[in-house]
Amino acid sequence: MYSNNHYNKNLKDFARELRSETVSKAEKYLWKSVLSRKQTGERFLRQRPIDNFIVDFFAPSLGFIIEIDGSSHFNRGNYDFYRQKKLESLGYVFLRFTEGDVIQNVDAVKERIDHAIFCLRQKRYNNYNSHPP
């Protein structure tokens, strides 16, 4: 069955602006060094509108969201928590990193992302094979 992953077309223009004008150094670095399809085998979208939010990175086939918290998140802990819980209630899996994590220790970040992708693929495979045709 086709799913649009709770895509919110009303946020499309704002998401496009975020992709082109306000991308952080950490987001650019993670995109180029980790999240390309050649490295993960998964298609990731940047600044994807989901429900009433825009997430940093999203792998639609896995329902997997990656967020990079920069200085703009310092005073937004309650909102970020609410936002994450809301998206998780829709079935999405979340990983959150700080800009410092990405810039200073990208290998550990990549390892956590690769592990999450592996686990989500296994879950998808097990769900697919546990249902009779």
Radius of gyration: 15 Å
Largest sheet, order of strands side by side? 1-2-3-4
Q: Count of DSSP helices?
A: 6
Integer tally of domains: 1
CATH topology: Endonuclease, Chain A
Class based on secondary structure composition and strand pairing: alpha+beta
N→C terminal distance:
14 Å
- Detail the poorly predicted runs: none
The portion of residues forming beta strands comes to 15-25%
Number of beta-strand segments = 4
Arithmetic mean of pLDDT = 84
How would you describe the shape? globular
CATH class: Alpha Beta
**Quick one: CATH superfamily?**
VSR Endonuclease
Q: What's the CATH architecture name?
A: 3-Layer(aba) Sandwich
Largest sheet: 4 strands, mixed
Give the fraction of residues assigned to helices.
40-55%
> Topology as H/E string?
HHHEEEHEHH
Structure notes:
The chain has 133 residues and is an alpha+beta fold. The protein has one domain (9-130): VSR Endonuclease (Endonuclease, Chain A, 3-Layer(aba) Sandwich). The chain contains 6 helices and 4 strands; from the N terminus they run αααβββαβαα. The chain has helices at residues 12-21, 25-33, 37-40, 77-89, 99-104, 106-130; strands at residues 45-50, 53-59, 64-69, 93-98. The chain has a 4-stranded mixed beta sheet, with helices on both faces. The longest helix has 25 residues, at 106-130. The chain is globular.
